[in-house]
Write a structure and sequence with these properties.
It contains eleven helices and nine strands. It is of the alpha/beta class and about 300 residues long.
């Protein structure tokens, strides 16, 4: 039962299909995410269209393996895209989000859902074999706080996997590229090309993108300096979105023409790793150190820990 995973005394209430912990509408970003991803039509479009391709599936299965039999916490789960794509039979599959409409969809997919701030969850420490954050960090006000909370939930030997957050260097458009970026919304409306079907949907969607704008986004440094001091071995992979497990061999995959132009106009090599659209972070939490008296040979003679995708 999920109740055994809550912190003692945590003020968690059962509300409809999900549990609720604390107030989730404390910032404009949270309110925008709750509104957009709480809309059943918009959330369904997102579930059906985003992070559902074979490239995504291959990349994630290589990184984290089969979830069957594991405790998985999905922070910023939305309507459940990651599990809908990967499948498996986790022993516990927990989704945390601020949008109740999305949580209802995730619950129908098999998640046990919790309405909570991803930076402040009601769970005990070290409960999860895998904590995942997909396309969610940049929707959060304090990305470092969410990473630290995710790290707190990972068991020793467990994994934290993040993906599909915009790499700051790739989106740091300058000069003409920035002007075109700012004008893109009018261009999309003119030519009728956009994921969003209406001006209201587009406007609300943009408000959710707290850190997805020129000069902002995630960096390798953010992951390494946040997670390494907490005992994680950290590996970060830059990639464009049409690439699968090849990312772990150093490939970044092809970029769309508009992103190539944006990087060229900003004075950057469009094929460089710093020009790749997203960063994927795979961080494994180290096991507690064993005292020398508990082993048959000195620690210095033991095989070194090696990090690799599952």
């Amino acid at each position: 039962m999920i109740e055994t995973l809550f912190m003692p005394g945590a003020a968690v209430m059962r509300t409809g299909t999900h549990y609720q912990f604390g107030s989730c509408m404390t910032t404009d970003g949270m309110l925008a995410n709750a509104t957009y991803f709480g809309n059943p039509v918009w959330a369904k479009e997102y579930l059906d269209s985003c992070h559902r391709d074979d490239h995504f599936r291959a990349r994630w299965l290589t990184a984290g393996g089969d979830w069957s039999g594991k405790v998985v916490v999905d922070l910023g789960c939305g309507p459940g895209n990651v599990f809908a794509t990967l499948g498996g039979r986790p022993s516990h599959l927990i989704g945390v989000d601020v949008a109740d409409g999305s949580l209802e969809m995730a619950a129908r997919l098999g998640y046990t859902t919790v309405l909570a701030d991803a930076a402040h969850t009601p769970f005990r420490a070290s409960i999860a074999d895998i904590v995942v954050i997909n396309a969610s960090l940049h929707h959060c006000d304090d990305m470092g706080a969410v990473l630290r909370e995710a790290a707190r939930l990972v068991k020793p030997g467990g994994m934290l996997i993040t993906d599909h957050d915009p790499q700051m260097t790739a989106w740091d458009y300058k000069g003409l590229a920035k002007l075109l970026w700012n004008a893109r919304l009018w261009i999309y409306r003119l030519i009728g090309h956009s994921f969003h079907k209406s001006t209201s949907q587009q406007s609300c969607g943009l408000k959710t993108e707290v850190h997805h704008q020129p000069g902002d986004g995630v960096t390798r440094k953010l992951f390494e300096e946040t997670l390494a001091p907490l005992g994680f071995d950290v590996a970060v992979y830059a990639h464009n979105h049409q690439v699968g497990a090849e990312v772990f061999d150093g490939e970044v995959g092809p970029a769309g023409w508009k992103y190539k132009i944006g990087n060229i106009l900003s004075g950057r090599n469009p094929y460089a790793r710093d020009s790749a659209l997203s960063l994927m972070c795979i961080a494994r939490k180290g096991l507690p150190q064993v005292r020398k008296s508990q082993v048959h040979k000195p620690v210095s003679q033991a095989a070194p820990l090696e990090f690799s995708p599952a």
